[in-house]
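Lab notebook, bench 4. The sequencing result for the construct came back, and we need a structural model before the next group meeting so we can plan mutations. Quick request posted to the team channel:

Model the 3D structure of this chain.
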Amino acid sequence: MVNLKESKPMFVRETLLENGIPVLHLNKKDTLFREDQKAVNLFYLMEGEIKIYNTDSEGKEFLINKVNEHQFLGEPPFLLGEKYPANAEIASETAEIFSFSEELFKQYMVNHPEMLFEFTKEIAKKAYEKTLRLKSIVHQCPHERITNFLKIHKKNLGIDDGQKAIINVTRKEMANSTGLAIETVIRTVKKMEREDKLKLINHKIYF
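Done. Here's the predicted structure in token form:
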């Protein structure tokens, strides 16, 4: 059995409600925001899962990331007053999301200065992980790209690196995240299984 790390959520639902932060209740496949839409809100996912993706001129989706509960969405464009660089769609059956306007966000941080450091750490963490992903895509072979993807995915779920768990992502999602072709992902995963680097249980990766 996998033991998830005990991590204290940045925000507690009751505290956000007491401070007048609006809450959204969305369902699977609902759109939270679209690419090139002005980022006038910062979102905090209290419950659920959201997929972040881009589409090409033919409408093909390219997965960038999956956001799990107790994580922010859209920090850079919100803080810079820019447009969202990707689409955000609800991936779970339901999702509970708190929505900060610029005024509400500033006021909340003034009233809770200790949270500003935690917020900055979250931004730094995401920037660091993006750097690792880019390094993986530029420099590493398929085996190393997939291994790096699996490690980051486990870390985001709070699973210790030394523990094994079912990785609930599709081969297509792995391909989009690693910059590899789906066929390459399938071939590499099978090779890694033969080399005992991972296991396949009902076609799902156990790593």
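The chain has seven helices and eleven strands.
Will bring this to the meeting.
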